[in-house]
Amino acid sequence: MNLGLASDTLLSTTRAVRHRLDLTRPVPRALLEECVDLAVQAPTGRNRQRWHFVIVTDPARRAVLADLWRASAGVPDAHQPLPARDVRRAEVAPGVMDRVYTGVGHLHRHLHEVPAYVIPCVEGRTEGLSVTHQAGTWGSILPAAWSFMLAARERGLGTVWTTGNLPLEREFAEALGIPYAEVMQAAFIPVAYTVGTDFRPARRIPREQVLHWDGW
């Protein structure tokens, strides 16, 4: 179903959906393919189009990946504490982070039930490379992945950007047949229909704290 959301609404209400993922309703392959078709209209450095999207819907394979995703939380340095300034920003409204943490817990418990996973990948690894090379590589996959999430939102699907695959990226690559030495995973995105569609803009810090004119 195409909701035909206005562009401002689409951009301001594409939320990280955890609690409200519908775990009972399969997502049609054709709908996911439509989202990929739109994703690859995103910009890519020097038009190299090194992007790849691994989509997993098989229940047995989802169960394996869900276990790996949960195990990654125990990897040393997987989750560093937020600096105080980031905590202040995150708590821009009372209870915001409580909802985030309970949502993460819900996803942790139910990830294997989510009907589809999307793992955006890009050819080329960035370890040890300059910032220029890193920016060019990440800039060639992240816009496409976000376009996928916007396209999903317009079609009544919820997504959430996670990096739970990256602490155990080699293990995820082995489970999915991704050539680790040549291809880098960018994220792990659960996808499902949403329970309701009444998503609202998020509370953010004031524009004055992030906008800089003609210099910092």
Automatic annotation (TrEMBL):
Q: Which superkingdom, per the lineage?
A: Bacteria
Pfam families to which the protein is assigned, alphabetical: Nitroreductase
SUPFAM superfamilies from the xrefs? FMN-dependent nitroreductase-like
- Is this entry keyworded GTP-binding? no
Using the record's annotation, list all stretches that form the Nitroreductase domain: 15-190
Instruction: Enumerate the UniProt keywords alphabetically.
Output: Oxidoreductase
The record's listing under InterPro entries reads:
Nitroreductase, Nitroreductase-like
Q: What is the similarity comment for this entry?
A: Belongs to the nitroreductase family.
Protein name from the UniProt record: Nitroreductase family protein
User: Which species is the source of this protein?
Assistant: Streptomyces silvae
* Highest classification ranks of the organism: Bacteria, Bacillati, Actinomycetota, Actinomycetes, Kitasatosporales
